[in-house]
Write a structure and sequence with these properties.
By secondary structure, the protein is mainly beta. The chain contains seven helices and 19 strands. Keywords: Repeat.
């Protein structure tokens, strides 16, 4: 209570759930609205100096934002059903955008993103699915892109991008992977809504270009993932030298993937979930995984796993 009181005195924060207050602040740079958005919205949000806005409360409220009045906004965090978006002007100072809600169809998410060309973090992980095409090709400051992007996700020269979760294999195949020099966390999934003939497989050769990649998750729908057969990686002694965690879900292997995965010198976590293997036996050679701490196997039709002495720490 003392901290909130002092923050209000310094115009550091304004919490709009105070029954005594009748008007939103016109000077405070940070505002929080809780369960009173109907009254807040009726005041037409007159605070043009606002830098940070957080709304959370009952999902029945529909949020309406007018960018023309929020030009200095840097942080926008919405936890609600998302309503109409007034797109007059640009959110050129917005750096962090987080969306959480379930009525995505009544909200043009692409509109608010297009107005935020200097965005650094886009967190839509708590939105069910994003079916719109999201065009981020002009966003050169992006660092973290998180969400269930079912529609096409377009990314350009994103040298600062560190997190990309999740992107379809189709959208991934269209990117210039060599430009993602700082990408550390990647989640690629296969779009099961498409016919098998139209699905695009993930080439491991595209992943070897990501020299900073540390965490990788691949999700497929019984898709064959051929590792050693790729000429670009078969001759390599070391593959993906920075990778520390690999999770493979729903993938079918025709050949033992262990010799390939053992070429990753920093690998600590290796997880197979609901995968298939037709070779019967897998083998981990001596000193195969020098740093491995976690090995989780849920592989159908795997008859035997042979682990030689000193194969793991």
């Amino acid at each position: 209570d003392v901290a909130i009181k002092k923050s209000k005195e310094l115009n550091f924060v304004n919490v709009y759930n105070d029954h005594v207050s009748q008007h939103s602040s016109t000077t405070c740079r940070r505002e929080v609205v809780h369960h009173q958005f109907e009254r807040y919205r009726s005041e037409k949000c007159k605070n043009k100096r606002m830098r940070s806005f957080l709304y959370f409360g009952e999902l029945k409220f529909l949020v309406r934002l007018d960018v023309e009045k929020l030009k200095l906004l840097r942080v926008l965090d919405l936890e609600a059903n998302l309503g109409p978006f007034a797109s007059n002007g640009d959110l050129i100072h917005l750096r962090y955008l987080r969306l959480e809600g379930f009525s995505l169809r009544v909200f043009d998410i692409a509109a608010i993103i297009s107005k935020s060309r200097f965005l650094q973090t886009l967190d839509a992980d708590h939105v069910c699915f994003i079916y719109d095409t999201i065009d981020l090709r002009k966003f050169t400051s992006l660092r973290h892109v998180i969400g269930k992007f079912v529609g096409e996700l377009l990314i350009g020269d994103a040298a600062n991008l560190q997190t990309l979760r999740s992107i379809s294999s189709d959208s991934w195949s269209k990117l210039k992977h060599e430009l993602l020099i700082n990408l550390r966390d990647l989640f690629i999934y296969e779009d099961s809504n498409k016919s098998k003939e139209r699905r695009v497989t993930v080439s491991w050769a595209s992943l070897t270009k990501l020299r900073s990649l540390r965490v990788l998750k691949l999700v497929a729908d019984r898709r064959y993932l051929s590792l050693e057969s790729e000429e670009a990686v078969r001759s390599m002694d070391v593959i993906s030298p920075s990778l520390e965690s690999v999770t493979l879900v729903g993938i079918t292997f025709e050949e033992d993937p262990m010799p390939f995965l053992q070429k990753m010198p920093r690998l600590e976590d290796l997880i197979f979930e609901n995968c298939d293997y037709w070779g019967g036996k897998m083998s981990v050679s001596e000193q195969g995984f020098g740093r491995l701490r976690k090995l989780k196997l849920f592989i159908n039709r795997l008859d035997e796993l042979q682990i030689e002495e000193e194969a793991m720490p």
